[in-house]
Recover the amino acids of this structure.
């Protein structure tokens, strides 16, 4: 289901490699639509990591990736960890963005 506005999840994490170094992971899922741009900007400054997601079956969402990367570079701390994630990879017959393109 598409995100409308924003969604939030908070989870306590205890890594197996360092169980005494637990932390609270907070993920803010912000809508990608232009009309929610002002809402998403408020989450950039304090972010320690960003996940930019796009739909492998919809090239239009991949075309927006550059805009999101520019926004991260302009609004986040320098060198914030950033992941590019192509979702719906299980829909191989509907895939419109190749792995090579995404890389």
């Amino acid at each position: 289901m598409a995100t409308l506005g924003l969604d939030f999840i908070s989870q306590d994490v205890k890594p197996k490699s360092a169980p005494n170094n637990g932390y609270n992971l907070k993920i803010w899922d912000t809508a990608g639509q232009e009309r929610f741009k002002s809402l998403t900007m408020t989450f950039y400054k304090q972010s320690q990591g960003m996940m930019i997601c796009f739909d492998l079956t919809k090239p239009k969402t991949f075309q927006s990736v550059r805009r999101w990367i520019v926004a991260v570079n302009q609004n986040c701390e320098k060198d914030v960890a950033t992941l590019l994630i192509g979702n719906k990879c299980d829909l191989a017959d509907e895939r419109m963005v190749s792995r090579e393109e995404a890389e």
Notes: DSSP finds four helices and four strands in the chain. Residues 86 and 102 are 8 Å apart (CA to CA). The chain has two domains: 1-12+23-43, 46-103. The radius of gyration is 15 Å.
